[in-house]
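Table S2 (continued). Query chain:
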Amino acid sequence: MAYEKIERYDEETTARIAEHVKDILTLLGENPDREGLVKTPERVAKALQFMTQGYFQNGGQILKSAMFEEKYSQMVLVKDIELYSMCEHHMMPFLGKCHVAYIPKGEITGLSKIARVVETFARRLQVQERLTEQIRDCIEDTLHPYGVAVVIEAMHTCVSIRGVQKSNALTTTSAFSGVFLSSARTRNEFLNLIKEH
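Corresponding output:
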């Protein structure tokens, strides 16, 4: 199925990426043939393919694989979804958590599918702002609910370990649609719920 994780890596792609990684190691002043680095190019090639497997997944199909008719029309919230992505500016990781809520309008989806949608868009080269909106739009376009709310809180290693080196900096982004935009009461309910621990 289109939303399953990569279990096998394309040998040609792995070999081509590995050759470039070998060149990078040399340019950095390393010896890619020394014992500790011999297998590093292949490992990096596979790691990069794993961290970008979202390009080959379809968030809408993930949600549709477990859609059910249901009269429930109150908020459905999945919070504290672990999130790991890679900044497209430096190709360095950013990680944190994502909170997703929607108010069904006749159809619901499996709760694990919400987390899978987050992972699908996170496993690409990203900026947090776009990632937040892509998750919202996918749920909006597939389930057609009364509204969707997404908040991401993440630490970016490109900020914490290079550049300004601010290890405690946390970035928060949000994206709302439908009643989460039009109703301050609904939006505040969501924001209060994700603060509770």
